[in-house]
Amino acid sequence: MSVLIGVIADDFTGATDIANTLSKEGMRVVQVIGVPEPDATVDADAVVVALKSRTAPLQDAISWSMDALEWLLAAGAQQIIFKYCSTFDSTPQGNIGPVADALRDRLSAGPTVICPAFPENGRTVEGGHLMVNGVPLHESPMRDHPLTPMWDSDLSALMSAQSQGDVDLIPLDTVRAGRDAIETALAETAADYVVVDAVSVDDLRAIGRALSDAKLVTGGSGISVGLPQNFLDAGQLSALHAPQAPKVTGRQVILAGSASVATQGQVAYAAARMPAFEVELDRIAQEPDYAEQIARWAWDHSAAAPVMIYGTSSNDVLRRNQEKYGAARAGEMLETTLSDVAVRLAAQGFDTFVVAGGETSGAVVSALNVSTLRICTEIAPGVPWCEVEGARTQAIALKSGNFGAESFFLDALEML
Ligand code: ADP
Asked: Which domain holds residue 76?
């Protein structure tokens, strides 16, 4: 069966988020990192292409997105989702508006929904305004974002600044009137884009159900919740499937490169329950065989139990490292070392990797040469286990720093 839904996601963790949502809704989902080779085939109901286009130069963002679109169409995708952040991370120049315009043109799409709502994370669309935990977007911490400081919360104004299209609104009372009312509103508008109010998952599901004929949908991960059922109803999807746990039996390692508060708590919790190795930046600087030493330590301690290798035990250590090496260099030293260790462990036969930290995850996945992740069972909201198919199946969980409860690492491994 060919691909039904194709997603173009403008960053890596956002891609995993929507892949996880579609998987929980019953589709078999694969996330690919970057646009696959033209002749690559993927067996899945939905394919999510993870780009790094959110803050890339505009022409790159457009051209990568169009490449992703062509690949997805060739794979059979009947509906395209352009996934951006639930805080609409962009500038008055883009990249959301211009990328959406280009996708609309190529697909000859009708009125295109804009709905970044993600109620579980406190992002709602009310009266066309994007709210973050009850405050307008531009009064939330997003106003100080280093790359995409958000200057308005009116999605129509945000979109009009960066897109050629005109923008209409479907208000909450229409959404609450249900699928038919939303379909009618979409059929009646003459606008290119339609911001749709949504404050609950039920709202998102009603919107999704009304989008069965939409060639292009744009929004956060929440916009995908009602879509798989449409394909089932249309007979294009034979069944919905519950996500499966990855099938692995080998050694297990946790690689924690995030310094965030949540990860520090998870590291402390796990360190009290399994062998743990703290990576020291001074030793990275001084000992050329340090990664090899760490890998040997991991092998010696992992026959019976998982092991953890981590970078940050406290803010003091982090501050000291950053003062001594500079924040960028310190981060890179740790990311490179953890990636190097991951490659050595994979070669030794470790097949299960839990990685903490967004940047760290990107570095490890790229070092391990992973290009395709099959989405499996969810560990914590927004964080699924993933299976990597290859000569040897691997299980990988990629957690952005602030996600997950204190027991996240152990919970993850217990699921296997
Ligand atoms: P998060 O998802 O929490 O932002 P990231 O991996 O994206 O995590 O970013 C964390 C950054 O902090 C990485 O570059 C990592 O290498 C760096 N870092 C973590 N711990 C330390 C440490 N002890 N000293 C220096 N840099 C660190």
From this structure: 5-233
Which atom of ligand 1 is closest in space to residue 263's alpha carbon?
3
Domain shared by 88 and 181, yes or no? yes
310 and 218 assigned to the same domain: no
3-state secondary structure of 119: helix
Q: How far is the CA of 259 from the centre of ligand 1 (A)?
A: 5
pLDDT in tens, 162-187: 999 999 999 999 999 999 999 999 99
What is the CB neighbour count within 10 angstroms for residue 300?
10
For 35, 72, 107, 157, 283, the CA distances from 39, given in Å and listed in that order, are: 11, 12, 22, 41, 45
Atom of ligand 1 lying closest to residue 335 CA: 16
Residue whose CA is closest, atom 15 of ligand 1? 331
Confidence check: pLDDT of 313 > 80: no
**Ligand 1: which residues within 6 Å by Cβ?**
257-260, 263, 281, 311-312, 317-318, 321-322, 330-331, 334-335, 357-360, 400-401
Q: Specify whether 229 is located in the same domain as 325.
A: no
